[in-house]
Amino acid sequence: MTPSQPHQPTLSELTGLTPLSATTTCRDPQAAYSELRAKWGQVAPVELEPGINAWLVLGHPEICQIVRNERLFSRNPHYWRLYAEQVVSPDSGLGPMMFPRDNAYFSDGDKHRRLREPLDDGLAGLDEHKMSRMIRAACTELIATFAPRGTADLVTEYAAVVPMLAVAGMFGLSTDLGHQLRQALIALFGSGADSQAGNQNLERILTNTIQARRADPSDDLATAFLRHPNLRNDFELQQSMVLMISAGYETTTTWIAQTLRLMLTDPRFAGRLRGGRLGIDEALDEVLWRDPPMSNMPARYALADCQVAGQPVRRGDALILGFAAANADSRVHTNDPWLEVGNRAHLAWSAGPHACPAQRQGRMITRIAVDTALHRLQDVVLSVPAEDITLLPSPWTRCPASLPVRFTRTGPIPHA
Ligand code: HEM
Prior knowledge:
- It comes from Saccharomonospora marina XMU15.
- Residues 1-22 are annotated as: Disordered.
- GO terms for molecular function: heme binding; iron ion binding; monooxygenase activity; oxidoreductase activity, acting on paired donors, with incorporation or reduction of molecular oxygen.
- This protein is α+β, with helices and mostly antiparallel strands.
- Helix content is 49%, strand content 10%.
- The strands form 4 sheets. Strands 1-2-8-5-3 form a 5-stranded mixed sheet.
- The chain is globular.
- The mean pLDDT is 93.
- Bound molecules: protoporphyrin IX containing FE (HEM).
- Residues 67, 104-105, 116, 119, 167, 243-244, 247-248, 251-252, 255, 293-294, 297, 348-350, 354-358, 361-362, 366 line the site of protoporphyrin IX containing FE.
């Protein structure tokens, strides 16, 4: 990266740009990314919403350089010029993903290290056997609610519920509280009329949990956070809990839903998986490569003028990390399945200091959810044509809105 050249239009001067959501809502995202690459190179200007432009980073090495260079690219949205100058409306749909909150996710440097350590330490201290039993029980319980019907929506009734019950369980919360937590988060991040109520419910559940663990410690994440010297007060503790709960929710839901979608719509994928030629972890990795849960990830903010892949990035510009595009970068990935065995250089977890701390746990939740569904739902098939599966509207993810299925009966519960 070199100092910027004169005479190139700035990001905000560019008009008629491709909306970022065009890359997630179209049938063939890689075709959309290729078009952007052909026109702009590895860093393309896109429109986040009318009048709000950002750079979309498409190249694998370019993303790695950015996320590993905190001195030049901050995670803190206070450095985003359009946010600081209040060009972005306070009720913009970008808010839930891009507006700052006081936690590790939106911090850099020493503050990030201090707030990140409790997350890493807490996760490392979890009993994985206990966790896997808890997740399997949650999956089995959910399947039992729709099994008698012989039909289900595997997104709304399963993929979108399992992660919250699992993450709530990591904090030692009951299934019932896990459901309440999910409703609270949906209301809070939906920014509708019930957003305030959602926030209050979330705070009530978390405050009660903190008080309960203070009186009666356990071996869960809430207790680990309470004991951690880096978290200085209940506010930081609560923010760390909200971060874990919200960061783990949509990502894991999308991973489960995408894997189930591929099984139900791509006979070659399903055949390889059911026929034993593709192990479940390889299947999950294939999804992380082909359709990473975060297709486009917000964001890093330039702290100085610079050039990235020839584009004139100005101080305060936002850079979106195009993980799905970067995963198809021919510099790191071939189309030969034999050469790709064991290749985990994808960016689904990002890289650098903010890389996902819960890779083991996210994989465990997804593996158990997919495995339980595979074993329990016998002869499961989609009950609508594959082309009718729509995606939830989002510039960040490509999560199926629903997966209506029918099955003949339920099989035995797989071993934990
Ligand atoms: C299972 C699928 C998951 C995927 C694909 C995923 C992906 C990611 C990615 C890409 C980031 C990095 C963002 C960046 O560089 O800006 C991230 C950060 C994070 N993830 Fe995950 N995640 C998953 C599950 C989870 C779960 C289950 C949890 C919690 C239980 C979690 C907690 C977090 C946290 C706390 C961060 C912020 C870390 C920091 O800023 O230092 N994730 N995740």
